[in-house]
Write the structure tokens for this entry.
Amino acid sequence: MPATDSAPTPARSRLRLSVGAAVVLGLVVLSGAVGLGIMRGQAQPMQSVPIEASGDETGVSGELYVHVLGQVEQPGLYVLDTGARVVDALAVAGGTLDDADLKTVNLARPLSDGEQLIVPAIGAASEDGSSTAAGDGLVDINNADQQALETLPGIGPALAQRIISWREENGRFRAVDDLLAVPGIGDSVLGGLKDLVRV
């Protein structure tokens, strides 16, 4: 019986080498495809920037909804960028009419979301200068001038000016209790005002 030669023939070695190379090549291609898929999966969210994410931790979305009324060319609801001022709202509303009383409007005041901006006509303010809601007799602390604020108990010229200054620097009061943020107004003064004012 002839002895079996256990040494592989050159053809058999080449076949094994080819199969091994094909397996390695297949693994490299598969790894590359998986890696590319992972990279694409990670890059995809970076390309979409939702509007809701463009605010800060207070929930501000980067847009202000402002209702502009009164003596403007095109009264209506407008969407402005955060940081917009009264002059910007009047500009998008087409500007003011000839009889607009701009002395009662602070054009440089920052706007706040959900604000209603009313531009009165010349002479439309009441004789005592108070800014009240029709029929309710309450002073609107967001629109009242110094003279109207001084009609309130415990509010003299200095405190009235502080209320106006706070309004100009911080925007509208969102609640009557926000008056506590004005220097010089404490719980006792606020207690005497609560039933006489509105926002």
